[in-house]
Amino acid sequence: MNSCVIERIHGLKELTVQVKAGNAIRKYKVVKSDGPDDLVFQSVRSGKPLRDNKILVRFIKPAARALGLPWVNWRSLRTSHATWLKMAGADVKDAQAQMRHSRSSTTLDIYQQFVPESQQRVVEGLSRLVN
Question: Which of 71-80, 88-97, 103-112, 122-131 has the lowest mean pLDDT?
């Protein structure tokens, strides 16, 4: 990372927001804690986890719109993740563990999608074994 990006990240750690509470105005740090095990999406007020729908509406859907994606929800993100794991060559048991499914059939039948390029890569790999 260049120094400009690092400075911006450090600046975000010090960022505060003002929230009107009746006649008073309260200031909250946007980033409560930033350790390696801390939450990415945390409440400005308490630092506790945000509800999944708030994360989707406040952060993920606006980012998707900015990228030109017409519609995003948690299911589409999970399906994309499972399919990308497959395309990256992950074993189904590894994908199952990362998706936190109790059965690999859930990963295979519901989340991983057919990708023609991936199938072509497998066929080419098999032909190299035969030759």
Answer: 122-131
> 98: how many CB neighbours lie within 10 A of its CB?
13
User: Is there a domain that residue 55 lies in?
Assistant: no
pTM beyond 0.90: the answer is no
Q: Which domain holds residue 121?
A: 74-130
Confidence at 39, pLDDT banded by 50, 70, 90 = low
Report the alpha-carbon distance of residue 57 to residue 39 in Å, rounded.
17
- Neighbour tally for 71: CB within 10 Å: 8
